[in-house]
Amino acid sequence: MTTKQINWRWLPLLVALLVGILLAAGVYLSREPNRDALPSTLIGKPLPQFALPDLFREDHIVTNKDFAGTPYLLNVWGSWCPECRVEHPVLTKFADTKRIPVVGYNWKDEKQDAMKWLEQFGNPYYNVIVDQDSKTAIDFGVYGAPETFLVDGKGIVRWKYVGPVTQDVINKQVTPLLDQIDKEAPGLFK
Q1: By three-state DSSP, how is residue 99 classified?
Q2: CA nearest 102: which of 112, 90, 115?
Q3: In angstroms, rounded to a whole number, what is the distance separating the alpha carbons of residues 86 and 82?
Q4: pLDDT of the chain, 190 residues: tens digit per residue
């Protein structure tokens, strides 16, 4: 056997080892998603105008005007979304504080599935709007669920979070922003 034959014999093992190292590095680097990787172009701008049906009253159309003057948390969810189930208890706990309304944005869902999901896990939402055909979601820049927006009393998007909201996110991101909004417009939450 020559030296060249021995080197070629080990080549597939070396390639497999290199691929394994690259995959391990990718998994390691993706442990905590980079929430800034896909920033929203809406931050600092008005939430696009919308007119969507209310989940519980199909004949009632909800628009931006229904929330004028009040900051709110807009949470994009669907009964088909496993991560929405993860964040649901956190949103429920936050909604129980009654600091600001939490508005549910039911996305790409069948009405009966959404109703059953809320019946099973509870309804933390002040209001639930429905975007079954996803037309408004495009304007909002939604590309997955869950996603959550903080909209101030002037209708300006102040924050967007992609993925399940955790208690840590509420404590370190949402609450400080709400405190800031409250300083800018004292008494708005009362």
Answers
A1: coil
A2: 90
A3: 7
A4: 555 555 667 777 777 777 777 776 665 555 544 444 456 789 999 999 999 999 999 899 999 999 999 999 999 999 999 999 999 999 999 999 999 999 999 999 999 999 999 999 999 999 999 999 999 999 999 989 999 999 999 999 999 999 999 999 999 999 999 998 888 876 555 4
Asked whether 164 and 145 are in contact (CB, 8 A), the reply is no
Residue owning tokens 């429905």? 130
Residue type present at position 164: P
Rounded distance, CA 54 to CA 85, Å?
21
- Return the domain boundaries, the chain: 1-31, 51-184
- CA angle at residue 159 from 143 to 36, to 5 degrees? 60
Predicted TM-score (pTM) of this structure: 0.78
**CATH fold for domain 51-184:** Glutaredoxin (3.40.30)
CA 104 – CA 76 distance, rounded (Å): 6
Token pair for 79: 């009964």
Q: How far apart are CA 95 and CA 101, in angstroms?
A: 7
